Amino acid sequence: MRIWSRLAGVAVAVAVVAVAACAPSAPAPEVVASPSTPPPAPADLILHNGVVITVDGAFSLAQAVAVTDGRIVAVGSSGDVLRAEGSRTRVVDLEGRTVLPGFVDPHVHYIQNQAPELENMLPDQEALLSWGRTTVGIPSVIPINLEGFQRMVEADSLILRIHAYLQWNNNCGDPEDTAFWDDYTFERSTDHRFTIAGVKVFMDGGSCHGPAVSFNFDDAPIGLPAGWTGHGDLFTTADELVEVVRRVDARGGQVVVHAIGDRAVAEALDGFAEALDGGPNPNGHRIDHNTFLRPELTARYGEIGVNAVVWGVFNSCIEPDAGWASFLNEDQLPWLRRHRMLLDENPDISVAFHSDVPHTEGNPFHQLLGLTEMAQFHEDFGGECDAPPWLAGHSVTTEEALRMMTIWAAEVMGIDDEVGSIEVGKRADLVVLANNPLEQSGFDLLDNHVSATIIDGEAVWCDDFPWCEGLE
Ligand SMILES: [Zn+2]
């Protein structure tokens, strides 16, 4: 595995010499659609002879994509796109590999180190790039984290697109001194690699104290963990959330709420409903986690216009004996992971995945397995663990899961006009996979790996791909 970072001073953008296409080792995939017409030649980069899953509105497939100045200029059949080849075009034979939009992960806790030295942050960035992430959201950012990000920017070593959400209160519910917000402006754009997009609010416990729920944890078969109270811990009320939303809205920022228990979700929905007052939600305030949902809550997201972000990986190897399900009685078990219902009952909002690394797996194929099968592979717990019967009917299709990891995630971050799909005019944020997940299912989805991660048309991470050779 190799990483090419600007820190190492390695230019990876565009090779000056065109590479002659060698004999393809894999058969050319069938093209379901050719989404675009040939571009004006010549392109900087052409990837051809692969399966390009564009994740456009029609979920079109193509064979090739061309890039100029970091933007996608053509998508279509290899023959059409290769017409954009000029003497300075770098032409890369995908040899049947699959190209997707780069994975967009709205909620990760990597890089935000409490000791923000470059050597502490760069390995996290490398891991995220190796997992195909091109844009991430980082919640609960405090001044020490901002120092670290600043250091990365100054060293020209920030490669990922990062949207930071400043902390309003911490995971134990303690309020932050938010005076530091005043030093920053909020925006949701892709113009810079580091952007401060909004504010993070912990509605309830879950990582510290218990999630706020409508039932009593005292009845849990497993007993109450230290620090938990019977109905969990609500840190922020709907009224307090309204105040935060007004303050952040006034500056064009996004409010990202952590809500795990159903009582916290209801409180957050009430707060957003009052703050938005039936109007639109232009700054994209959203609720992350949404772990315990009483069935009557599921349709309220769409009624209010608030997006939802949910975990991909599910711990089917340990639930319900441990994990969230261990606190629920049999009737409440189907309140977990209502991904299918969130999609079906809210056609007008976006539902995205998040890995929340390091709290679940960074590996995108484990996320895909969790979304599509509610299953898990974990070597420490017997390997393959099928979905529990009480989650039957909660999973999403592979197409939906790939949307949740790309375009719908870009929508919840407010940057879907720039990234999240492979369409002419968008930024060339791409991930190259060894295998096509549309031709896999179940645990076979794990038989895949990221061959390359590309941001703005530059390869920023590469593995097991002839393209990598000669670029070190
Ligand atoms: Zn988190």
Describe the model:
The protein has 472 residues and is an alpha/beta fold. Helices cover 19% and strands 21% of the residues. The protein has ten helices and 21 strands. The strands form four sheets. It has an eight-stranded parallel β-sheet. The longest helix has 15 residues, at 262-276. The protein is globular and about 70 Å long. Mean pLDDT is 90; it is low at 1-27. Zinc ion (ZN) is lined by residues 107, 109, 139, 356.
Overall average pLDDT: 90
Helix fraction? Answer: 10-25%
Strand order in the largest sheet: 9-10-11-12-13-14-15-16
Shape: globular
Number of helices: 10
| Biggest sheet details | 8 strands, parallel
Distance between the termini: 11 Å
What ions, cofactors and ligands are bound?
zinc ion
Provide the low-confidence segments as ranges. 1-27
Structural class, please?
Answer: alpha/beta
Strand fraction: 15-25%
Rounded Rg: 22 Å
Total strands: the figure is 21
Entry keywords:
472 residues; eight-stranded parallel sheet; globular; alpha/beta; binds zinc ion; seven-stranded mixed sheet
Short description:
By secondary structure, the chain is of the alpha/beta class. It contains 10 helices and 21 strands.
Task: Give the helix/strand layout.
Elements: E1 2-3, E2 45-48, E3 51-53, E4 61-62, E5 64-68, E6 71-76, H1 78-81, E7 90-93, E8 98-101, E9 103-105, H2 118-130, E10 133-141, H3 143-154, E11 161-167, E12 194-202, H4 238-249, E13 254-259, H5 262-276, E14 286-289, H6 300-304, E15 307-311, H7 339-345, E16 351-354, H8 364-373, E17 376-378, E18 383-385, H9 398-404, H10 407-412, E19 430-433, E20 450-455, E21 458-462
Parallel strand pairs: 2-7, 3-8, 9-10, 10-11, 11-12, 12-13, 13-14, 14-15, 15-16
Antiparallel strand pairs: 1-21, 2-5, 3-4, 5-6, 8-19, 17-18, 19-20, 20-21
This protein binds zinc ion (ZN).
